Amino acid sequence: MRPEVLTNLGGFSGAFSMEKFKKMEKPTLVSGTDGVGTKLKLAFLLDRHNTVGIDCVAMCVNDIACAGGEPLFFLDYIACGKNYPEKIAEIVSGVAEGCIQSDAALIGGETAEMPGFYPEDEYDLAGFAVGIVDEKDIISGKDLSEGDALIGIASSGVHSNGFSLVRKVFPMTREALDTYYDELGKTLGEALIAPTKIYVRALRSVKEAGVVIKACSHITGGGFYENVPRMLKEGTRAVIKKESYEIPAIFELLQKTGNIEEHMMYNTYNMGIGMVLAVDPADKAKAIAAIEAAGEKAYEIGSITAGEKGVDLI
């Protein structure tokens, strides 16, 4: 729990002191909300509920970090057909772990029991996070220049997007999910349920190394084609080299098994890169070193060119 938290869990609301941030020139709140989506169907089948909370936190705090913000606090919302205390405790343990990884306080939440609306053994999970950034430090892409380097931070796998397609490609049975694949080095279920990476500390490490992140994109639903353009200003185009990093085996297995065309893969999944940031080319080595010092794997995956706002994968 962060020292700024003024209330205990179980109250009607959560209170958080902003006193510490008065020294900022223009303290600005940034927020993010998201859910885990149909990845929860795998948790139900595997009866494994202690990691989806990490996914939920990650989807929110990564968006905040993408704007240059420091996540401050998080609230979760669990809706279920029947409240099984042990299962809810497992879910919340994952939420708590995600908050630890992102240095955010879990200051509240809601568990709604909704019989007749959800099946007894199913639930939905969503969350909301608030962070802070000095207005001058917001990452907006406004200072992007031709020649800036694109750095990609490795993902842990599929993360929390594209599971509706995953469920069409692979049989959603316990037998199929418990099948071991040599190329994965684990079972299919273990590969798919791997929690989403939280990039808060990696991006903080880059900032503390003195590197200015000019633009940043969290690669979620819509993959490269829909998310990379969101970090660009008009008149700039991203060029990403597909062979600049190793694509995790789960994506190759998914593409081969489902006979999915390459464009759709890059338009649906992160393909092994969960976060893309643009930096001055003189800072690229320093940025990669800072990310790896925070425990993540990073690659130089491309550059910014002049042109129509968009992305080319070559």
Question: How does this structure look, described?
Answer:
With 314 residues, the protein is α+β, with helices and mostly antiparallel strands. It folds into two domains: 22-137, PurM-like, N-terminal domain (60s Ribosomal Protein L30, Chain: A, 2-Layer Sandwich); 149-313, Alpha-Beta Complex (Phosphoribosyl-aminoimidazole Synthetase, Chain A, domain 2). Helix content is 31%, strand content 25%. Strand 6 (180-181) and strand 7 (186-187) form a beta hairpin.
Which consecutive residue ranges, at least 5 long each, have pLDDT under 50? none
The neighbouring-strand order within the major sheet is: 8-10-5-11-9-12
Structural class: alpha+beta
CATH class of the largest domain: Alpha Beta
> Approximately what portion of the residues adopt beta-strand conformation?
25-35%
Number of strands: 12
Shape field: globular
Largest sheet: 6 strands, mixed
* Helix content range: 25-40%
Keywords, please?
six-stranded mixed beta sheet, alpha+beta, four-stranded mixed beta sheet, globular, Phosphoribosyl-aminoimidazole Synthetase, Chain A, domain 2, single chain, 60s Ribosomal Protein L30, Chain: A, about 325 residues
